[in-house]
Amino acid sequence: MAFFDKLFSGLSKTRKQLDDNLAEVFDRDRIDEDFYDDLEELLILSDIGVTATQNIIDDLRRDEYYEHIRKPKALGMHMVKKIEQIMSTCESDYSFEEKKSVVLVVGVNGVGKTTTIGKLASQYMARGRKVMVAAADTFRAAAQEQLAVWAERSGALLVAGSDGQDPSSVVYDAISSARSKDIDILLIDTAGRLNNKKNLMEELAKMKRIIDREYPESCKETLIVLDGATGQNALEQARQFKEVTDVSGVIITKLDGSAKGGIAIAIQSELQIPVKYIGVGEGIDDLQKFDAKEYVRALFYKEVNDEDGDKEQ
Amino acid sequence: MAFESLTDKLQNVFKGLKSKGRLTEADVRIALREVKMALLEADVNFKVVKQFVKSVEERAVGSDVMNGLNPGQMVIKIVNEEMTALMGSETTELSFLPGQAKTVIMMCGLQGSGKTTSAAKLALALSKKGKKSLLVACDVYRPAAFEQLKVNAEKVGADFYGIEGEKDPLKIVRSAMDAAAANSDNIVIIDTAGRLQIDEVLMEELANIKATVDVHQTLLVVDAMTGQEAVNVASAFNDRIGIDGVVLSKMDGDARGGAALSVKAVTGKPVLFVGMGEKLTDLDQFYPDRMASRILGMGDVLSLIEKAGQQIDADTEKEMTAKLKKGKFDFEDYLMSMNQMKKMGGISSIMSMLPGMGGMLPKGANMSDLADQIDEKKLARTEAIILSMTKKERQDPDLLNPSRKHRIAKGAGVDIAEVNRLVKQFKETQKMMKRLPGMMGKRGRFKLPF
Description:
Chain A has helices spanning 2-9, 13-20, 33-45, 50-66, 72-87, 113-126, 143-154, 167-180, 198-214, 233-245, 263-271, 292-300, and strands spanning 101-106, 131-136, 157-160, 185-190, 219-227, 249-253, 275-279, 287-289. By secondary structure, chain A is of the alpha/beta class. Chain A has two domains: 2-87, Four Helix Bundle (Hemerythrin (Met), subunit A); 92-300, Rossmann fold. Chain A has an eight-stranded mixed beta sheet with strand order 3-2-4-1-5-6-7-8, sandwiched between helices. In chain A, helix 10 (233-245) links the parallel strand 5 and strand 6. The longest helix of chain A is centred in the N-terminal third of the chain and has 17 residues, at 50-66. Chain A is elongated, with a radius of gyration of 22 Å. By secondary structure, chain B is of the alpha/beta class. Chain B folds into three domains: 6-87, Four Helix Bundle (Hemerythrin (Met), subunit A) (Up-down Bundle); 103-298, Rossmann fold (3-Layer(aba) Sandwich); 302-447, Orthogonal Bundle (434 Repressor (Amino-terminal Domain)). Chain B has helices at 6-13, 25-41, 46-60, 71-87, 115-127, 145-156, 169-183, 200-212, 230-240, 259-267, 288-296, 301-311, 314-326, 331-343, 346-353, 367-373, 376-387, 391-395, 402-412, 416-435, and strands at 103-109, 133-138, 159-161, 187-192, 217-223, 245-249, 271-275, 283-285. Chain B has an eight-stranded mixed beta sheet with strand order 3-2-4-1-5-6-7-8, with helices on both faces. In chain B, helix 5 runs parallel beside helix 6 (145-156). Chains A and B meet through helix 3, helix 7 and helix 10 of A and helix 2, helix 6 and helix 9 of B.
């Protein structure tokens, strides 16, 4: 009973409250096959994926045995803590925000890259950073205009190309402009591309090379934007974008729906890319720094109404 | 991405299994575990999978294993049939109002699912059928959505209607109908803003559009990469707004597209179109049976057959089949079939499209290994050897004595051992062909051993 004891010895009010809100799966009396079946369902429905789900359940079975965990609720808390640990970010993950940096934003079509950049630009500007946005999506109709609107809203400077222009040349122009204007953060918007399109991925690799070559002293960050409703393909997206652009962080958008974005767990554990931001709404401030606790809570806790729930946790 | 196909997995599962005749409960259970995993990996919704597996189980247990199939193949056959039944076996066409009436089509879906692009693609596809479309910009929220649709409308040669700065979609659709009348358009395609299915205000907006104009077809655009959420999205849009069909976008990616099955299962509404690329011409008809194969990772057999049909000229095929049936088959034929393989994009591309190849593999190998093993260079050498033979030698391999083989080896620039190996292999193949004339049906060409 060591683990059980440890967990509940310093039981604070908050923890008890959290514990009570664990998903219904954990309300059972004992840990049996039905419990694991239901847990499997919960995990898979969150898009965590077959393999990661299997790994989590195997781990839990082992821990149940070796750490003598008897109650589903205790096992649930155990799991929550472990996943929270895996998903936790550290301060250095955001150090690019305080330096002179170039942030390349990549992803497949329709995940919300342009909108995310608009929101990031607004937030950085509000914090007093000098921001420039570069519209290197020269393919999609009106992508330039869309980013221009965001630049105007946020007050960030804009470097745009013309339709059909080589996006790398936009990147080049943006870097020289950012240098001469002493910009703190340069955000580069790229065209959405599916990860299995070799030529387009090559184009992205070229942009990355230009950044490395033209602005070597900058802090280089590559963020991949993933749609929260995407299933198992998100892992493949992260893997393949990482290969060509050395992705250093994940942004999950559209988590204000009922999608859970559980694939982030697989991405973190298989590719070691941390989630840095999540999008939970249309507003500028709805793009938030990732909080592992909140995330895990959304995955494994009962949905609570705002009145009963303790939002501070 | 190299998925291990379900077919390969099942072949492996059943490798040690000798049971013939009837599928036992144990056989089925083992097989269905793999089926379940494959479906979940393909992002089919958990609940849909559960139900599907149950119905397959009920049908499969105790059913007879057909002649010529092993238990694994039999389960696959049943799975495939059930899947096709669920997906719908027929291609569904978009419906139009008859005569001069204006068909109003409303596109809806989540943000970023591809509504604006799909709307433009649809206008282009319909223009090829002689219809004239008016694209209506009703996304009053996303910056530059208006411009995006306008530019795309121009590209596809469709009419465009929008009121820049207008925030009331109802006003826009009302006057759009007048514009359509003035332009004598017979199709009106309304592009709406992306919205979450739980956003009651925005869902209400869609319902209001439907109440304002007579929408004939409401199309839900679903990203092919959608995960478990597809079920919630589809059922919410269907319950709240009522949808008539689905456009599955971004199918040119490498997602399995299990969302298609989830959506069909919960709404019963057909997928009408699939988006296959970024060009505005990239909108295709939807073929449910092919989708079933893709989700299961069973290779796109139908595409292969179609491709083969286009490339292989029918007479050659007939001639070849006749020869095969008689067990007469010489190096000339070998050469010809090799050339046809090349036309179809090389052996490895064919292998990847063919299901059921797993059974031919050595233990532990999977499809991608096999494709790697078949060295296309080696095939080129084989070709060189055959080309170094005289016509007579090709027709009658028995002529090949050591001195002829020496000459051939020199001509082809290979070792004589390689010539010997090819001849030996060829004779074995000939023997096998004679023994198995019954196996050579219409599709006999696919069984050519290389």
